[in-house]
Design brief:
mainly alpha; Amino acid/polyamine transporter I; two-stranded antiparallel sheet; 21 helices; globular; disordered N terminus
């Protein structure tokens, strides 16, 4: 029987669910479809791009891990942002995180519709999106455990696909495979085709814009930890494995691709995963990878639906959203929040019929989401810095201390500022960068609606840490 917590949410997710949710959050559609473009932009130096981003985000996760375990009443980073930085920051953080996943969800539904056209080109554009939303909503409404099961299998498909790619690439490398261009598979391709930085430092930096989006959702393990049976054991385990996963799923996979197919012949607009299977004569490669990318997009949409419902629930409990979002169904799921978020996801169906370049729109909206995620990640670090300053005794007692804490918080914040500068260097990402402040302006304009509630929260005693249950 799952433990019922004071908030009403159930701790029904098991360790295997949390581990696979963490992996699924660290492996996005950006790896499968976006890696061709990152390779063409940065060449072999793209390996450093993923390592650097993964390095800094690991410290964000460690900061989040210590804060969540500091007080098990925290259900997400919105709770500790509200407690430590104040309810106004909790308001901006919670609604922004909800907005992040709604935007990604819209993009995912559009992408899913495109992927299904591969098999059924004559199906009406609105049908796959409607069916996808209905399917994911049904699973999320039933119970958190069913969400965990669905995400478990989605993540497993992604893992198997990447491990298969690595195995196939290793086989081609050791057998001296010669590709259609006459290039023999070799490790030397990592440095003999113009060097490690063939397009210079700016080409290296250009890849960051796409690679950051590939990591969006890595913090989902924190949201899911609120519904884990044993967070004090399972949350650190999930976070500590992130560096290994980055090395295996990003660095090793892209290394294999570039040793078999030299970086300068990788098509920027095609998945290098498809090409790898085509090279060994797997005629169904396109269909296989299309299925993998489809499940990856479903995984992202599923994670987004899980997050948006929980965020609206938490905001309502903190009086920062309408009271109706704080009600749970009989199965312990935030039904009203899920239904509201899904209603907004239906806007993706209208986007499918909009004129213009869909991929351009996709890039812009995912840029907006990525920038909002950077804001959320920064809030986690700022919360940690204030926690260290105002609650030194809590840090001293912590069983899961963040390493190199203070200097790494500042270093990561500087990295995020630099990443925002990089977003200004490309036309489509610049549009997203310019558009994002309008979201924060909208939140600011809505702030007076919650002023009385915010003042009431401010007057409440701060959350008190307690022992793990």
């Amino acid at each position: 029987m799952s433990q019922q917590h004071s908030s009403g949410l159930q701790r029904s997710l098991k360790n295997r669910h949390l581990q696979l949710i963490a992996i699924g959050g660290a492996i996005g559609t950006g790896l499968f479809m976006g890696s061709g473009r990152t390779i063409s932009l940065a060449g072999p130096s793209v390996l450093f791009t993923y390592v650097i981003i993964g390095f800094f985000l690991f410290f964000v996760m460690r900061a989040m891990g210590e804060l969540l375990l500091h007080n098990l009443e925290y259900k997400s980073f919105v709770d500790f942002a509200t407690d430590i930085l104040g309810p106004t920051m909790g308001y901006f953080t919670g609604w922004s995180y909800w907005f992040c996943w709604v935007v990604i969800g819209v993009a995912d539904i559009v992408a899913i519709t495109g992927y299904t056209q591969f098999w059924w080109p004559d199906v009406p554009l609105w049908l796959p999106g409607i069916l996808c939303i209905a399917f994911l909503l049904a699973f999320n409404l039933l119970s958190a455990k069913l969400f965990g099961e669905l995400e478990f299998w989605f993540a497993l498909i992604k893992i198997v696909a990447i491990l298969a790619l690595i195995a196939v690439g290793a086989y081609l490398l050791f057998t001296g495979f010669v590709g259609p261009t006459g290039d023999k598979a070799s490790l030397s391709h990592l440095w003999d085709r113009g060097g490690v930085f063939p397009n210079g430092i700016m080409g290296f930096f250009a890849a960051f814009q796409i690679a950051i989006f590939a990591f969006v959702g890595i913090e989902l393990v924190g949201t899911a930890s609120a519904e884990t049976a044993d967070p004090t054991k399972n949350l650190p385990k999930a976070i500590n494995k992130i560096p290994v996963r980055v090395i295996i799923f990003y660095v090793l996979a892209l290394t294999v691709i570039m040793t078999v197919t030299p970086w300068d012949v990788v098509a920027p607009n095609k998945s290098p995963f498809v090409n790898m299977f085509l090279l060994i004569g797997v005629g169904a490669a396109a269909a296989i990878i299309n299925f993998v990318v489809l499940t990856s997009a479903l995984s992202s949409a599923n994670s987004g639906m899980f997050s948006t419902g929980r965020m609206l629930y938490g905001l309502s409990k903190n009086d920062l959203a309408p009271e109706s979002f704080g009600k749970l169904s009989r199965s312990g799921t935030p039904r009203n929040g899920l239904l509201y978020s899904c209603a907004l996801l239906l806007s993706s169906v209208f986007l499918l019929y909009a004129e213009g370049d869909v991929m351009r729109v996709f890039t812009i909206v995912t840029t907006v989401s990525s920038i909002c995620f950077i804001f959320v990640w920064a809030v986690i670090l700022v919360s940690y810095l204030k926690y260290r300053r105002t609650r030194p005794e809590a840090h001293a007692k912590s069983s899961y201390k963040m390493p190199f804490a203070i200097p790494m918080c500042y270093a990561t914040l500087v990295f995020f500022a630099f990443a925002l500068y990089l977003f200004s260097q490309e036309e489509e990402t610049l549009i997203g960068l310019i558009a994002t402040p309008f979201w924060f302006l909208a939140l600011f304009l809505c702030l007076p609606l919650y002023k009385k509630r915010l003042k009431r929260i401010q007057q409440q005693p701060a959350a008190v840490p307690h022992a793990a249950e």
